[in-house]
Specification:
With 296 residues, the protein is mainly alpha-helical. The chain has ten helices and four strands, in the order ααβαβββααααααα. It has one domain.
Amino acid sequence: MTLYTHASSNTRKTWFYLTGFLVFVILIAWIISYFLESYIVLYIAIVYSVVMSFSSYWFSDKIVLSLTGAKLIEKKDNPELYRLVENLCITAGLPLPKIYIINEKQPNAFATGRNPKHGAIAVTTGLLERLERNELEGVIAHEMSHIGNKDTLLQTLVVVLTGIIILMTDFFFRISFWGRRGRDNKAQSVMFLIAIVLAVLAPLLATLIKMAISRKREFLADASGALLTRYPEGLAKALEKISSDPNPMRIANNSTAHLFIASPFRGEQKRSWLTKLFMTHPPVEERLKNLRGMRI
Protein backbone atom coordinates (compact mmCIF):
# COMPACT_ATOMS: atom_id res chain seq x y z
CA MET A 1 0.00 0.00 0.00
CA THR A 2 1.40 3.41 -0.97
CA LEU A 3 1.20 6.46 1.24
CA TYR A 4 -1.48 7.94 -1.02
CA THR A 5 -3.84 4.97 -0.65
CA HIS A 6 -2.84 4.76 3.03
CA ALA A 7 -4.00 8.34 3.53
CA SER A 8 -7.36 7.61 1.88
CA SER A 9 -7.76 4.50 4.03
CA ASN A 10 -6.96 6.49 7.18
CA THR A 11 -9.71 8.99 6.39
CA ARG A 12 -12.33 6.24 6.10
CA LYS A 13 -11.13 4.49 9.25
CA THR A 14 -11.13 7.72 11.24
CA TRP A 15 -14.79 8.44 10.52
CA PHE A 16 -15.57 4.80 11.31
CA TYR A 17 -13.85 5.15 14.69
CA LEU A 18 -15.66 8.41 15.43
CA THR A 19 -19.08 6.92 14.60
CA GLY A 20 -18.28 3.91 16.77
CA PHE A 21 -17.22 6.26 19.55
CA LEU A 22 -20.60 8.03 19.54
CA VAL A 23 -22.45 4.71 19.56
CA PHE A 24 -20.19 3.58 22.41
CA VAL A 25 -21.10 6.65 24.51
CA ILE A 26 -24.84 6.04 24.01
CA LEU A 27 -24.47 2.30 24.75
CA ILE A 28 -22.63 2.89 28.03
CA ALA A 29 -25.21 5.49 29.09
CA TRP A 30 -28.11 3.16 28.21
CA ILE A 31 -26.68 0.22 30.16
CA ILE A 32 -26.04 2.36 33.22
CA SER A 33 -29.56 3.82 32.93
CA TYR A 34 -31.08 0.34 32.65
CA PHE A 35 -29.23 -0.85 35.71
CA LEU A 36 -30.38 2.16 37.73
CA GLU A 37 -33.94 1.77 36.38
CA SER A 38 -33.85 5.39 35.32
CA TYR A 39 -32.92 6.86 31.95
CA ILE A 40 -31.77 10.09 33.48
CA VAL A 41 -28.12 9.07 32.90
CA LEU A 42 -28.82 8.55 29.19
CA TYR A 43 -30.51 11.94 28.88
CA ILE A 44 -27.72 13.64 30.82
CA ALA A 45 -25.07 11.96 28.64
CA ILE A 46 -26.74 13.10 25.42
CA VAL A 47 -27.27 16.67 26.64
CA TYR A 48 -23.77 16.84 28.11
CA SER A 49 -22.28 15.54 24.84
CA VAL A 50 -24.04 18.24 22.85
CA VAL A 51 -23.14 21.04 25.28
CA MET A 52 -19.48 20.00 25.62
CA SER A 53 -19.09 19.43 21.88
CA PHE A 54 -20.51 22.90 21.21
CA SER A 55 -18.22 24.46 23.83
CA SER A 56 -15.15 22.64 22.56
CA TYR A 57 -15.98 23.72 19.00
CA TRP A 58 -15.86 27.41 19.96
CA PHE A 59 -13.23 27.50 22.70
CA SER A 60 -10.91 24.50 22.26
CA ASP A 61 -8.17 26.51 20.53
CA LYS A 62 -8.05 29.12 23.30
CA ILE A 63 -7.92 26.42 25.97
CA VAL A 64 -5.11 24.50 24.27
CA LEU A 65 -3.03 27.61 23.58
CA SER A 66 -3.45 28.69 27.19
CA LEU A 67 -2.41 25.27 28.52
CA THR A 68 0.78 25.30 26.45
CA GLY A 69 1.75 28.89 27.28
CA ALA A 70 1.84 29.86 23.60
CA LYS A 71 2.39 33.57 22.83
CA LEU A 72 0.87 35.23 19.78
CA ILE A 73 3.40 36.98 17.51
CA GLU A 74 3.12 39.48 14.68
CA LYS A 75 5.04 39.64 11.43
CA LYS A 76 7.59 42.10 12.82
CA ASP A 77 8.46 39.62 15.60
CA ASN A 78 9.65 36.92 13.18
CA PRO A 79 9.42 37.99 9.51
CA GLU A 80 11.07 34.82 8.17
CA LEU A 81 8.62 32.50 9.91
CA TYR A 82 5.70 34.65 8.79
CA ARG A 83 6.84 34.61 5.15
CA LEU A 84 7.25 30.85 5.24
CA VAL A 85 3.70 30.38 6.57
CA GLU A 86 2.29 32.91 4.10
CA ASN A 87 3.88 31.12 1.14
CA LEU A 88 2.51 27.75 2.22
CA CYS A 89 -0.95 29.27 2.72
CA ILE A 90 -0.89 30.61 -0.84
CA THR A 91 0.16 27.20 -2.16
CA ALA A 92 -2.46 25.36 -0.12
CA GLY A 93 -5.21 27.93 -0.76
CA LEU A 94 -5.77 28.42 2.98
CA PRO A 95 -6.22 31.62 5.00
CA LEU A 96 -3.26 32.74 7.11
CA PRO A 97 -3.49 31.18 10.60
CA LYS A 98 -2.46 32.96 13.76
CA ILE A 99 1.12 32.14 14.67
CA TYR A 100 2.27 31.40 18.21
CA ILE A 101 5.63 30.63 19.78
CA ILE A 102 6.16 28.44 22.85
CA ASN A 103 9.25 29.10 24.93
CA GLU A 104 10.51 25.50 25.06
CA LYS A 105 13.90 24.05 24.10
CA GLN A 106 12.37 20.88 22.70
CA PRO A 107 11.67 21.21 18.94
CA ASN A 108 7.97 20.61 18.39
CA ALA A 109 4.81 22.16 16.94
CA PHE A 110 1.04 21.76 16.81
CA ALA A 111 -2.02 23.23 15.12
CA THR A 112 -5.43 24.04 16.55
CA GLY A 113 -8.63 25.85 15.58
CA ARG A 114 -12.17 24.83 14.70
CA ASN A 115 -11.77 25.53 10.97
CA PRO A 116 -9.25 27.02 8.50
CA LYS A 117 -10.55 30.56 9.09
CA HIS A 118 -9.81 30.24 12.81
CA GLY A 119 -6.65 28.16 12.55
CA ALA A 120 -3.55 28.64 14.67
CA ILE A 121 -0.05 27.17 14.50
CA ALA A 122 2.30 27.06 17.49
CA VAL A 123 6.00 26.27 17.26
CA THR A 124 8.61 26.02 20.01
CA THR A 125 11.73 28.18 20.15
CA GLY A 126 13.71 24.92 19.96
CA LEU A 127 12.13 24.12 16.61
CA LEU A 128 13.12 27.50 15.16
CA GLU A 129 16.67 27.12 16.45
CA ARG A 130 17.37 23.55 15.35
CA LEU A 131 15.69 23.12 11.98
CA GLU A 132 16.89 24.29 8.58
CA ARG A 133 14.45 26.18 6.37
CA ASN A 134 13.31 23.21 4.26
CA GLU A 135 12.83 21.14 7.44
CA LEU A 136 10.84 23.90 9.12
CA GLU A 137 8.79 24.21 5.95
CA GLY A 138 7.98 20.50 6.16
CA VAL A 139 6.77 20.85 9.75
CA ILE A 140 4.62 23.91 8.99
CA ALA A 141 3.15 22.15 5.93
CA HIS A 142 2.28 19.18 8.16
CA GLU A 143 0.46 21.49 10.59
CA MET A 144 -1.25 23.36 7.75
CA SER A 145 -2.54 19.99 6.55
CA HIS A 146 -4.08 19.35 9.98
CA ILE A 147 -5.91 22.67 9.68
CA GLY A 148 -6.98 22.09 6.07
CA ASN A 149 -8.22 18.58 6.86
CA LYS A 150 -10.01 19.83 10.01
CA ASP A 151 -8.09 17.32 12.09
CA THR A 152 -7.91 19.80 14.96
CA LEU A 153 -11.69 19.86 15.33
CA LEU A 154 -11.97 16.08 14.98
CA GLN A 155 -9.32 15.40 17.62
CA THR A 156 -10.93 17.85 20.03
CA LEU A 157 -14.33 16.17 19.70
CA VAL A 158 -12.73 12.78 20.35
CA VAL A 159 -11.07 14.14 23.50
CA VAL A 160 -14.46 15.44 24.69
CA LEU A 161 -16.13 12.08 24.04
CA THR A 162 -13.37 10.30 25.98
CA GLY A 163 -13.94 12.63 28.92
CA ILE A 164 -17.69 11.97 28.81
CA ILE A 165 -17.17 8.20 29.00
CA ILE A 166 -14.81 8.53 31.95
CA LEU A 167 -17.23 10.84 33.77
CA MET A 168 -20.16 8.48 33.12
CA THR A 169 -18.32 5.43 34.44
CA ASP A 170 -17.18 7.35 37.52
CA PHE A 171 -20.80 8.39 38.09
CA PHE A 172 -21.91 4.77 37.72
CA PHE A 173 -19.51 3.55 40.39
CA ARG A 174 -20.68 6.23 42.81
CA ILE A 175 -24.36 5.49 42.25
CA SER A 176 -23.98 1.68 42.27
CA PHE A 177 -22.28 1.65 45.65
CA TRP A 178 -24.23 4.44 47.34
CA GLY A 179 -27.56 4.29 45.57
CA ARG A 180 -30.23 1.64 45.22
CA ARG A 181 -29.53 -1.36 43.02
CA GLY A 182 -33.01 -2.04 41.80
CA ARG A 183 -34.89 -5.36 41.82
CA ASP A 184 -33.02 -8.43 42.97
CA ASN A 185 -33.63 -10.79 40.05
CA LYS A 186 -31.55 -12.72 37.54
CA ALA A 187 -31.88 -10.20 34.69
CA GLN A 188 -30.89 -7.36 36.97
CA SER A 189 -27.87 -9.33 38.21
CA VAL A 190 -26.71 -9.99 34.64
CA MET A 191 -27.07 -6.34 33.75
CA PHE A 192 -25.17 -5.42 36.89
CA LEU A 193 -22.23 -7.63 35.87
CA ILE A 194 -22.26 -6.23 32.32
CA ALA A 195 -22.36 -2.68 33.65
CA ILE A 196 -19.46 -3.35 36.00
CA VAL A 197 -17.33 -4.82 33.18
CA LEU A 198 -18.11 -1.93 30.85
CA ALA A 199 -17.49 0.61 33.60
CA VAL A 200 -14.01 -0.85 34.09
CA LEU A 201 -13.16 -1.27 30.41
CA ALA A 202 -14.89 1.82 28.96
CA PRO A 203 -12.23 4.41 29.91
CA LEU A 204 -9.47 2.12 28.60
CA LEU A 205 -11.25 1.46 25.31
CA ALA A 206 -12.12 5.13 24.89
CA THR A 207 -8.48 6.12 25.39
CA LEU A 208 -7.29 3.49 22.91
CA ILE A 209 -9.74 4.74 20.27
CA LYS A 210 -8.63 8.35 20.84
CA MET A 211 -5.00 7.35 20.39
CA ALA A 212 -5.76 5.28 17.29
CA ILE A 213 -7.48 8.25 15.64
CA SER A 214 -4.57 10.52 16.56
CA ARG A 215 -2.07 8.14 14.95
CA LYS A 216 -4.14 7.89 11.77
CA ARG A 217 -4.34 11.66 11.43
CA GLU A 218 -0.55 11.98 11.74
CA PHE A 219 0.00 9.65 8.79
CA LEU A 220 -2.50 11.63 6.73
CA ALA A 221 -0.93 14.98 7.67
CA ASP A 222 2.54 13.64 6.78
CA ALA A 223 1.30 12.72 3.32
CA SER A 224 -0.59 15.97 2.76
CA GLY A 225 2.31 18.09 4.06
CA ALA A 226 4.83 16.34 1.82
CA LEU A 227 2.59 16.87 -1.21
CA LEU A 228 2.28 20.54 -0.30
CA THR A 229 6.04 21.18 -0.22
CA ARG A 230 6.87 18.64 -2.94
CA TYR A 231 9.83 17.64 -0.78
CA PRO A 232 9.11 14.72 1.61
CA GLU A 233 12.75 14.59 2.74
CA GLY A 234 12.40 17.96 4.47
CA LEU A 235 9.72 16.65 6.82
CA ALA A 236 11.57 13.35 7.23
CA LYS A 237 14.75 15.09 8.41
CA ALA A 238 12.72 17.32 10.71
CA LEU A 239 11.05 14.30 12.33
CA GLU A 240 14.47 12.72 12.89
CA LYS A 241 15.74 15.81 14.68
CA ILE A 242 12.56 16.27 16.71
CA SER A 243 12.37 12.65 17.86
CA SER A 244 16.07 12.45 18.76
CA ASP A 245 16.15 15.67 20.78
CA PRO A 246 16.63 14.85 24.50
CA ASN A 247 15.15 18.06 25.93
CA PRO A 248 11.99 17.48 28.01
CA MET A 249 8.97 19.72 27.53
CA ARG A 250 7.88 21.43 30.72
CA ILE A 251 4.29 21.94 29.60
CA ALA A 252 3.82 18.38 28.29
CA ASN A 253 0.64 16.67 29.53
CA ASN A 254 -1.60 13.83 28.43
CA SER A 255 -4.50 16.09 27.43
CA THR A 256 -2.53 17.95 24.72
CA ALA A 257 0.28 15.49 23.82
CA HIS A 258 -1.59 14.07 20.82
CA LEU A 259 -1.78 17.50 19.17
CA PHE A 260 1.98 17.88 18.67
CA ILE A 261 3.75 16.69 15.51
CA ALA A 262 5.74 14.26 17.69
CA SER A 263 5.19 13.11 21.26
CA PRO A 264 6.48 15.77 23.69
CA PHE A 265 7.34 13.09 26.22
CA ARG A 266 10.93 11.92 26.29
CA GLY A 267 12.45 8.62 27.38
CA GLU A 268 13.22 5.20 26.01
CA GLN A 269 10.12 3.75 24.36
CA LYS A 270 9.90 0.06 23.59
CA ARG A 271 8.11 -0.99 20.46
CA SER A 272 6.08 -3.93 21.80
CA TRP A 273 2.51 -4.32 20.61
CA LEU A 274 1.24 -3.25 24.04
CA THR A 275 3.31 -0.06 24.01
CA LYS A 276 2.07 0.81 20.51
CA LEU A 277 -1.54 0.60 21.72
CA PHE A 278 -0.94 3.51 24.10
CA MET A 279 1.14 5.69 21.76
CA THR A 280 -0.44 8.97 20.69
CA HIS A 281 1.80 9.06 17.61
CA PRO A 282 2.85 6.38 15.13
CA PRO A 283 6.46 5.18 15.44
CA VAL A 284 8.86 7.64 13.79
CA GLU A 285 10.44 4.78 11.86
CA GLU A 286 7.13 4.06 10.13
CA ARG A 287 6.59 7.72 9.31
CA LEU A 288 10.09 8.04 7.84
CA LYS A 289 9.64 4.90 5.78
CA ASN A 290 6.37 6.19 4.33
CA LEU A 291 7.74 9.66 3.60
CA ARG A 292 10.88 8.34 1.91
CA GLY A 293 8.79 5.92 -0.09
CA MET A 294 6.82 8.74 -1.71
CA ARG A 295 7.31 9.52 -5.38
CA ILE A 296 6.49 13.14 -6.21
